[in-house]
Amino acid sequence: MSRGESTGRCVVWIGRPSVEEHFGLIRAGWRTLVADPARHEAELPECGDAAIAVVDLRASAQAAVRILTGLREAHPGIAWIGLTGSRTPSGDPCVRRALPHAFEIIEGTSSFGALRQALMRVPGDVDAVQEEDAPSLLTGNSPAIRALSQNIRKFAPVELPLLITGETGTGKEMAARALHQLSPRRAKPFAAINCGAIAANLVQSELFGHERGSFTGATARRIGHFESADGGTVFLDEIGDLPLDAQTNLLRVLQEGTIERIGSCQSIHVDVRVLAATHVDLEKAVAQGRFREDLFYRLNVLRLRMPPLRERTGDIELLAQHFLDAFRESYGTRARAFSSSARKALNAFAWPGNVRELMNRVQRAAVIADDALITPDDLELSMETPCGDRDSLGSARTSAEREAIVDCLRASAFNISECARRLRVSRVTVYRLCKKHQLALDQLR
Ligand SMILES: Nc1ncnc2c1ncn2[C@@H]1O[C@H](COP(=O)(O)OP(=O)(O)OP(=O)(O)O)[C@@H](O)[C@H]1O
Ligand SMILES: [Mg+2]
User: Fold this and answer.
1) Contact between residue 116 and residue 122 where contact means Cβ atoms under 8 Å apart
2) Which residues touch 58 (CB under 8 Å, ≥6 apart)?
3) What spacing in Å lies between the alpha carbon of 168 and ligand 1's midpoint?
4) What is this structure's pTM?
5) Best of 239, 351, 355, 357 to mutate for ligand 1, by most ligand atoms within 8 A of CB?
6) Residues 269-324: pLDDT tens digits?
7) Residue 82 class from Cβ within 10 Å (0-12 exposed, 13-18 middle, 19+ buried)?
8) Is 402 touching ligand 1 by the criterion CB < 6 Å?
9) 101: buried, middle or exposed (CB in 10 Å: 19+, 13-18, 0-12)?
10) Closest ligand 1 atom, CA of 322?
11) Is there an atom of ligand 1 within 6 Å of 361 CB?
């Protein structure tokens, strides 16, 4: 059994996986160690990986159970999943004794998706979950995503506010959900509120609730998100869009742990952890007087920076295959993998819309692909266009221009006229900039 040096999650496969199974697991982000029944024991990695055993009972079932027994003696807490098939000797006393202890039995492994889902479901004590779940929630194996997963694990149990920064589509909300799931609050609500999507005059009521008759239209008492998420986590997305009066009340939640519903002066104690996300530069917003400095410092105790996809190029193929596999589980598409030119195009592209754009392109490609292998055309990634010119995209000026246009498009809800007005350029210029920076509007929306 080979040993890696990294930390993360790991499958110990007791048996002989097929090539598809072995590579399927690796592609899905699982570090996979094979314990061949011809050898007599399975070792767990000595590198801090959390491990789940997959015990292949389809062939050499007795030998596999023997190895499992040794493994469980050394590591009594290890969860294992059994794979059975028509050739599994169900009458074998050794197999019969082992089976009731399996976390899950999967019959036949024609559906690799069923195994992958079972692996994701394996529970454990908090420590084990912290080791195993964070990376599985954030697909990726790059140094950037591993470092991020480590920080998520460290920050999850700490009852402090946290600020998540990163470009659009980098997975800020996903990281917030992972944090909640790894925290002691995971059995309580997770309330995600997009501050930028609520009309400014309704934000306070959404967050903190209101009493009947407190304003025109308030025909009944309303409980706000902070109250209904009591005991859990409130995720404030696009916190930079929060109006100043709501910022003042949020500061009170963070300082005193209390809220007041609109129209009431009664303080209500709430026990919530606040996670906030922004794609804008909050320091700049503070300097411009659009964001309270004291609130910024309260929120910015812990910080997670979501890396843009172009900084984690090692993950692009892994994510693409992950999205394709997930799509195939729901829809029977012909496409199974990516042609080598498609892989090149995926790796060369600059991904202004980050993981979301990758997911959208892969899903659309899966629908339109005529073949088992997805082509660059299916992905609408032309190899001739200069999209792979990372040097030029990497230049500070070009990169700043791209960010500015993406930010403005976002702030304008991808309305070209509005974006042109804000940038004080013509609509034609907006379209030209989109083309220059490979911004496919339908992908970003
Ligand atoms: N590491 C990842 N593994 C799998 N899916 C991911 C990953 N990161 C992001 N995604 C997917 O990409 C999409 C965008 O993620 P998410 O909504 O968390 O991004 P965001 O940073 O909040 O974007 P925005 O700033 O536009 O709100 C989601 O569908 C999410 O499931
Ligand atoms: Mg988001």
Assistant:
1) no
2) 15, 83, 84, 85, 87, 88, 109
3) 8
4) 0.63
5) 355
6) 999 999 999 988 899 999 999 999 999 999 998 999 999 999 888 899 999 999 99
7) buried
8) no
9) exposed
10) 4
11) no
